[in-house]
Specification:
Elements lengths: L4 H4 L3 H20 L4 H8 L3 H8 L7 H10 L3 H5 L8 H10 L15
Amino acid sequence: MKTNPLREAQPYPVEQALRKIGANLRTARLRRSITIEEAAAKIGTGPRLVSDAEHGKPNTTIAVHAALLWLYDLLGQFEDLANPLKDEQGLILASRRERTRAHRNRGLSNDF
């Protein structure tokens, strides 16, 4: 079975982001005085997955991260992650493809 190369070595910024998110999840859990076992039980998973998320392991599913954010009442921030209205580079690229002038319809129309 072929393994996903991202499980072995992620780009450095991705690795750092996963570690930072994991550390933030751990801080949120500790501030609420919730144990790993309690967090796992509340989101319906095992303690190992909660621990893996907090350690920034790349094989942890996004569902575990989202469930933990929900548990800590931080899911609203997560929902705004890939907001197309805040994607500056995407908006710039889209504006470059927009037509700059209207073209006259070359065919006859029966619209009166």
